[in-house]
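A further point concerns the way the authors explain their paired sequence and structure data. The central task, working out the structure tokens from the amino acid sequence alone, is never made concrete. I therefore recommend that a typical entry be quoted early in the introduction. An entry of this sort, consisting of the sequence and the corresponding backbone structure tokens, reads as follows:
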Amino acid sequence: MIVLGVNAYHADASAAIFRDGVMIAATEEERFRRIKHWAGFPSMAVAFCLKEANVSLQEVDHIAIGRDPNAKFWNKLLFISKHPVSSFHFVRDRFFNRKKVTSIEEELSAIGGIDASLLKNKIHQVEHHRSHLASAFYASPFNEAAVLSIDGSGDFTTTMLGVGNGTDIEVIDSIDFPHSLGIFYTAFTQLLGFPHYGDEYKVMGLAPYGNPSLTNKMHDVLEWTGDGLFKLDLSFFRSPSKGFVNYNEEAHLPIVPSLFGEKMIELFGKPRTKEEPLTPYHKDLAASVQRFTEETIFHVLNHLQKRTGLDKVCIAGGVAQNSVSNGKITRNTAFKEVYIPSAGHDAGISMGAAQYVYHQTLKQKRVAAVWSAYTGARFSNEEIEKVLQEKNIAYKKMNDDVLFEYVAERLVNAGVIGWFNGRAEFGPRALGARSILTDPRRNDAKDLLNSKIKRRESFRPFAPSILKEYVDEYFEVNDVVPFMEKVFPIRKEKHQIIPAVTHVDGTGRLQTVDVTVSPRYYALIEAFRKKTEVPILLNTSFNENEPIVNSPQEALDCFLRTQMDMLVMENIIVER
């Protein structure tokens, strides 16, 4: 049985395809379009998935769309009745936009070359947050677990709680728009001078530099309720009737207007401008926002745990990308195990919608847990050589038994390496398939990377990839973290050994590297370990203010316009 999942007309448009419940391919449209958070119809991602599965659109049995305009219909009408006429266009476009959903048939028809009417009976509309829940639970190793989806908003919901059991997910509670932890975090992100969609990770990176002295004030903005949920004091925010996220029809980009209101400015100060330096107050505000967000998540999870009695939880949604809070869950709640997918953000909607249809709707049995995010594009040595030959670029070709040793030696000698290997990752984080790598022992590695390539804010940390057998030796919490989705404290005695990946608060965003999942990346780190006795590499995404590179041409372009020392694409090496 072939099931195609699609996230369309929403941020991080994507597609995923499954055969008998097993994910064959999944990718974001931005990887092909080269525009971050692209939000139109993912035609190139769909075509890629069909090609990888070696099927035509006609051979697809079910098509799952991760959006349902009919969800919470009466709740939407109640919202309209309580808000002025200015909400009409926003409500029409975002709440009841059936036109975009039905046009998916025509979009698919154009890709597959078949009549749109033949697709109608194959299409399933799956509510946004149910798709998130499915992406986490059905990919997890748990037969039974609590489930949580938490983000800005989708299909009029901002938070959804439930229980997963076998092939069934039961929703037990939810929070309606506009009461959203994602909106709360984004408003403060903007107030701190980070205005772009997706900038929230900058606040997370800045937070350890400050003191969470303003946390008590946050309770005025967001109130915890006795049922384990929360609500915003909307007087601090932009009027929800005007909408919180818009989508540019031509550029297909998510646009977020300023979400904070005058009352928030009165309590927390005027918005920081782009040119204004970050003051101690800004750092304290970031620390307070992060701390209060964590405490709110724990508030929700503790009630969810008590309500379900379960000790395992699966989490997805944009707020689930907050790796700092994720790493604290087992130490601040009664949950003992946490699973978060590689694409916990909206790109994962395509994956989750397909899984929801396969398991929940069709009641098909569960398959093996997903521990690999390598579901994207891949290229052979021959394809790579062709690109280099056409550009008249000199290169070397090495077998694996020589290559890992050769690259590790360059890393030891202060090399910055572009590493392009196997299938691209599904999700926002590079996991050793499209990565830039360097020696984590170097005190100057962060400055080196920012001056040569990344040119990003100095407060943002770089992450460690570690061989899974050595996690306990370097981290205070020993966990399997394949998708770099959790931050843990690094043991104090190791701070000086790996300063480049130790954040100012002594933590690191962990990625555990398993030889069975990432054999070539594992082999490179092992070669580095044999030379240095350190089983870790500094890993950051292979890009420069763009989506992560997808093809050899994009990798080469990034290499040539930056100051990387070496580009490794499969068995091909280009050096300066």
Summary: The domain at 2-140+347-361 is CATH 3.30.420.40 (Nucleotidyltransferase; domain 5).
